[in-house]
Each structure stands twice: as C-alpha cells, then as structure tokens.
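chain below, 256 aa
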Amino acid sequence: MSTLQPDGSYVKSAIENGIATIEFYHPKGNALPAHLLTDLTQAITASSNNIQTKVILIQSLGEKAFCAGASFDELAAVKNEEEGKIFFSGFANVINAMRTAPQLIVGSIQSKCVGGGVGIAAACDYAIATDKAAVKLSELKVGIGPFVIGPAVERKIGTAAFSQLALDAGNWYSADWALQKGLFAEVHSTSESFKEAVYKKVNELTGTSLKAMKGIKQMLWTGTDHWSTLLYERAAISGQLVLTEEARRMIASLIG
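prediction:
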C-alpha cells in the first residue's frame, strides 16, 4: 500500500515475515497535514487487521526529523471550530488506531519529535531512538496546547514530566531525557547500532507468542477505553483555540 501525493508526501506500508512496516514522509520535516493523518490511520488499521501481521513498525523517512507535528499551513487555513476539530481529530484517529491495534507497535525514532510527533512516539509500545531524537511540545508557544496527544504522552512519562514538556514549550529536551522519563526504551549513539536495534527488536517479537503479545498489549493499555471519546473532546478544544487572535498571529509568524 502506498499513497503518494503531488508534493511528494506519502504513507506506505508492507508486510513481510510478520512485520508490518509503515513509513510516512512529508518534505516539511515529516509534518502531518490532514491527508497524511488519514492515510496513516488507515495504514495502521489495515495492518492491524491483517492476519499476517505479528508486529507493527512505524518509521519516517530522512535524518532531520522523525515528525514535526501538525502542518502549520493547515492550521492557518482553519476557518471555524468544526474544521479545527476535524483537523485535530486526525491525531486522535492515529493514536486510537495505535492504541486499539492488537499487535505491539515498535517506533523507529531517528531524529527530532515535535508536538504530534511526540504523541506518536508515546503511543508506540516500544520506541527505539537515536541520540539526535530531541523532543519538544511547542503547542503552548503557538497559542494552543497538547490536548489531543496529552493523554498518550502523560501515560508514558507521567504527569510531572508531561507538565515540564507542555509548559516549557520553547525548549528541546534531549533523547537521554526522554529515555530517563520512559518515552524511549532505547537510545543509540550511532546510526548502525540504532538500525540494528530496530531490526533485532521487531524480529525478536515476531518469534514470540502472538497470543501472549496481544495479552500484553491489552494489559499495557488498560484504562484507556474512554479515549475513544476523550481525544475527540480534546480535539474540539484545540479546534477552538486555533481560531483565537493570539494563535492566528503566532502561527502566521511561523509560516512567514
């Protein structure tokens, strides 16, 4: 499966030896406009429903960024609250697809994560990163907040660390910080060791009991069933905030 857009962005997926590899790309730092969020959700859902899938691997293309989060161009184009809710619901759809997939999901985090990218990393069951994978929740800096991805990030790193990230919106936190807080399971200093670790983990998991992995997945996500409504309620909040004069001004300044 592959969805190539005119700007070169895409989501593609393939299943081989029990491993469903899902890769996304956008020329602007792997940002996620609405169409990529939709395609990513569909790829995760299709892979999780395929009987051949034992483990899911999520990765992005390039070395500069794993994911730059929401597309500022699309945020600037939001005209009303409904459009805003629909856009932010795209992140809710991705996280809920990851949450409800019966397979364990491994994240290959090769570089920086911003906003929604941090949310995707947090929704992975096992995230492997390089030491270049600094993280930042910049939402407050642009007049909104990490409302939709917040539950996923807070679940993974705890309230104190999530508060630190959300309120210190202008600063990057290192991959080692993310490792210490539990966002990443492993951090590697070379590209070779990073790629080897990802390869080793996904192949290791395909050799274990699928029934046991499904049971662990259910156990890990206990207490999140209400996210099927919570995340969309949060999307509505973000959809309102993105229309404020302050947010409009800040987003416009970033687009230039």
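The beta strands are 2-4, 10-16, 19-25, 55-60, 65-67, 104-109, 112-114, 126-130, 135-136, 186-188. Residues 81-100 form the longest helix (20 residues).
thats it, cya
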